[in-house]
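Example record for the data management plan.
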Amino acid sequence: MDKLEQYRSYIKQLLTEYASYKSLNKTIERQFVCDTENDHYQIVNMGWDEREERRIYGCTIHIDIKDGKIWIQHNMTEIQLGEEFVKLGVPKEDIVLGFHSPFMRQFTDYAVS
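Corresponding structural encoding:
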């Protein structure tokens, strides 16, 4: 399996597992959105908070594959996605923390871009 297919597999594995975790609020649905053609992957929460009478909608995780690297664009969870990818065998130089500014990335253990 080539590197990109392996990375797609790792992303799907991690996000499928996370999407399987049930929300404490039974009216909130968690969806795994997977665009393998363009290499965009997201976890989206949606539903209705009946206690507060408000709509819930938001992306909690967004990952892309760009230029052969895994870009963690957004992570609103306690899961350390970079470390999870490293455990699966992805080298740190192939992981970009896209939610950090380009300047700040140099201070992480991961790729600058």
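Summary line stored alongside the record: Residues 92 and 110 are 5 Å apart (CA to CA).
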